[in-house]
Specification:
With 662 residues, the chain is mostly helical. It contains 32 helices and 2 strands. It has a two-stranded antiparallel ribbon with strand order 1-2. Helix 9 runs antiparallel to helix 10. The chain starts with 27 loop residues before the first strand and ends with a helix.
Length: 662
Amino acid sequence: MNMFSSSPSSSSKFTLFSPSQNLNSSRFHFIVPLKTPHSPSTHRILPPIHSHHESSSSPALQEKPQNSRSQAEDSEMDDGDGFDEEIMKAKKSLEELLVVRRPVMEFPDEGMSASAEGGIGTASSVKLKDLTASSGIDEGLSRFAKKMPIFEPLRVESSSEEKPLSVNLDLALYRAKILARNYRYEEAEEILRKCISYWPEDGRTYVALGKTLSKQSKMNEARAVYEKGCQATQGENSYIWQCWAVLETKVGNTRRARELFDAATVADKRHIAAWHGWAVLEMKQGNIKKARNLLGKGLKFCGGNEYIYQTLALLEVRAKRYEQARYLFRQATKCNPRSCASWLAWAQLEAQQQNNRAARRLFEKAVQASPKNRFAWHVWGVFEANLGNVELARKLLKVGHAVNPRDPVLLQSLALLEYRYSTANLARVLFRRASELDPRHQPVWIAWGWMEWKEGNLSTARELYQKALSIDSTTESAARCLQAWGVLEQRVGNLSAARRLFRSSLNINSQSYVTWMTWASLEEDQGNSVRAEEIRNLYFQQRTEIVDDASWIMGFLDIIDPAIDSIKRLLNIEKTKDSSASDDRGENEQSGGYSSDPASGSTTGSGSGFNLDEFIREKLSLDPSKLEVQLGPSRVAFSKSVKSAANMRRSDNKNVAATPKL
């Protein structure tokens, strides 16, 4: 019996396996036609699998039966060379078919759908060719798909929903600015920190948060914010570098401030504030040549700028080249006619040269350039008070307070004015109101303490001086406070305490001429003329070329120090002047064109025809005749404050009377 003969149910089938495939791992077998010479009834010739012109209804792939191994062993006994060749072709086709097998979903085609349901059918050979031809494209697409993140569209869509629109950042920054202006620092900080979490790459948020922390004397936290901002912006934001440099300048870290200003100019050489701030720093250190060089670079890279011209003019004022200074001030106002700082600095020059009519015209220009600028109203009011024009000075300070109700400096100067020309009770109310507006403003406590000393309330004055020092004992205001306290102790006979206070003041500011001379005067009064001469010599040996008056050094942001104007001029705490001299000068000024009559107070006497009352009505929407009401929340509360201040004064007088005078 021939080895290929078999029963009708199983004689015509055997399984082929690829040599590279494991027999147990393959799930499919291929049906190859056989010739059965001894069974004519079962003789069939099926077309080969690679025929493109004929089709067969037999399925190309089937599940492998359990006896597939035995059938494969029987197929190895084939004795036809042509048949072997046909088997090799079929094996090659099977390998390619298995490699490129894809799910039906990738080929939404009717023929493939039909083959998925009931086999390849009549179009199996055609589909197989298309499948083989597209295998190269599918393989390339598969490799490309592996490189793409699977959930990228979802992630982008999710982040865009969570992150607010950029317009919300502008609104949040504006709201934080308003909150900080109203001393609601905690709310402002919360908003700014949320902005940093949403927009960590925006430098404006770091600048705003750093300034808010600096106003609260949180220098370490502000420094950390600026450092984080520089890292987040990769050091490319010059504004953060510049604000950080200003912070280091305030705390006295000059070397670090220079490095930060340098970094700001490297980040953006057209950042004018960096050049200007660096120049002001060098001016404070006495490096005038370096300051001029930096200001020249600012003009070179940034063009004409009012702040640069203004600072150059201040340098000329220090050198007493007043005509050159006036020329530079004129250039500054040409660059920006709305620059209130330039008009004010120029007016201060004319006031120093006693050109009072010209100074008034410049003050008018300043308030017209910026009607709500607190510096303009304050400096002008102090100027008129020093000339004895009390009514005009009071009106100017009240207008400034009306448009800046949260500013303590205006109330401080107004309190000193009222104490000098009115009553101490009203001055106390104004001092208390100013201290409530900004409890960390040292000049308010110093001026209040000076007034209580003049009224004889020594214990109250000491408490107020101590309060000022508890805020910050390293500032120039603290040095002035120690000097004033030393004068108090000198007058009551506590000479050892006075010497300690003078020495502490000089440890903070060794350039104060007034402190050195006051100490020398103390020693001379005690008969220690040799010691007094030694103190004077010490001053001249260690002095530098830095002008003690900070108003000519600080630049456009710190044109006038409230403590200097309020204490040095109005209070005469540094130099004792005869009050009659100032009164005579005020009378001379009045004869020069100013009328102190309230009825004619609408003009300032500058000769320019500027009508102050009309300007207040039109530009500020205020009634000049009702400025008194705007000094406090209500007249009832104001009267209660006056009564409480009077009670405090009576109790203080009792304490002073019970204490023996030294």
